[in-house]
Amino acid sequence: MEVQQVSVSPSEIRGNASQIHSLTNEVNSASKKLQSDYTQSASYWTGTASKAFQSEYNELDHEIKTLLRTLDRLESGVQRVASEVTRAEQEREEKRRLAEKAAQEALKQKQLEKQKQSQK
C-alpha cells in the first residue's frame, strides 16, 4: 500500500485556528444575546411556560459553556500543531542544509585527494 504524504503549511493551520476563534466569538455573541433575552423575559414572563423556558435555558447555557470551552481547547491545540509543524520544518531545513554542506565537504576532500594522487 502506497503512503501519500500530505503537506499543510503552518499558516494554513493557523488560518484554521483563526476560523475556530471566529466561530467561538460568534457562539459567545449568540450566547450573550440569548442570556440578555432570558434576563429580560424573567422580569415580565411568569407561569408554567416561563419555568419551562428557564429550565431549558439553563440546560442550553450549560451546553453552550461546554461548547465554548471545547472550542477554546481546540483552537489551542490547532495553534500547538502549527507551532510543531513550524519547528519540524525548521529542523528538516537545518538537516538538509547540513547534509548539503557535508556533501560539499566530501566532494572537496575527494578533489583534494585526486590532486594529491596526480601530483605523485
What do these coordinates show?
With 120 residues, the chain is mostly helical. The chain has one domain. The chain is 89% helix and 0% strand. The protein contains two helices and no strands. The chain has helices at residues 10-44, 48-119. Helix 1 packs antiparallel against helix 2 (48-119). The longest helix has 72 residues, at 48-119. The radius of gyration is 30 Å and the shape is rod-shaped. The protein starts with 9 loop residues before the first helix and ends with a helix. The model has no long low-confidence stretch (mean pLDDT 94). It comes from Paenibacillus odorifer. Residues 86-120 have a biased composition (Basic and acidic residues). Residues 1-20, 80-120 are annotated as: Disordered.
Question: How many beta strands in the DSSP annotation?
Answer: 0
Largest sheet: none
Helix content: over 70%
Cα Rg? 30 Å
Give the strand content: under 5%
Q: Give the N-to-C terminal Cα separation.
A: 54 Å
Given the structure, what is the number of helices?
2
Protein name: WXG100 family type VII secretion target
Biased composition (Basic and acidic residues): 86-120
InterPro entries: ESAT-6-like_sf, T7SS_ESAT-6-like
Pfam families: WXG100
